[in-house]
């Protein structure tokens, strides 16, 4: 069974908006969380990741990621990043167990187990 996640970046538009993508496989902190902390440390790398659209698998590099747009003739209109409010209830559900949020102002990742409090990812323990 897949551990689904959403990966987002806080937009600097004054509305607390987030742009996010869906991750279908290995979305737990021990896998996706570790990769985000180790390999997606800058705003530029996070923006590139999100602009790639929805993913099946997150990799250490963008080339190692499996984006839906690169396979199976997926409809590009359905796999693009979505913009929504930072409030957890406004994130699209998609069966996600984990939400990851990058805050560029702090250059820091946060994690949320759908409905819980946002925690700094580097301090997360289950």
What general outline do the C-alpha atoms trace? globular
Strand order of the largest sheet: 5-2-1-6-7-8
Query: Would you list the SSEs in sequence order as H and E?
Result: EEHHEEEEEE
Work out the helicity level. 10-25%
Instruction: Pick out the low-confidence regions.
Output: none
Sheet of most strands? 6 strands, mixed
Spatial extent as radius of gyration: 13 Å
**How many β strands by DSSP?**
8
Question: What key attributes describe this structure?
Answer:
single chain; 126 residues; alpha+beta; six-stranded mixed β-sheet; 2 helices; 8 strands; 16% helix; globular
Outline:
The protein has helices spanning about 30-40, 45-50, and strands at about 5-10, 15-25, 55, 65, 80-85, 100-105, 110, 120. By secondary structure, it is of the alpha+beta class.
């Amino acid at each position: 069974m897949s551990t689904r996640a959403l990966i987002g970046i806080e937009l600097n538009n004054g509305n607390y908006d987030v742009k996010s993508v869906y991750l279908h496989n290995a979305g737990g902190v021990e896998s996706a969380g570790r990769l985000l902390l180790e390999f997606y440390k800058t705003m530029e790398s996070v923006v590139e990741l999100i602009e790639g659209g929805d993913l099946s698998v997150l990799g250490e590099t963008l080339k190692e990621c499996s984006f839906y747009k690169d396979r199976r003739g997926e409809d590009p209109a359905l796999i693009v990043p979505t913009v929504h409010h930072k409030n957890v209830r406004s994130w699209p559900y998609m069966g996600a167990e984990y939400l990851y949020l990058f805050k560029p102002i702090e250059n820091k990742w946060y994690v949320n187990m759908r409905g819980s409090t946002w925690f700094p990812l580097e301090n997360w323990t289950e």
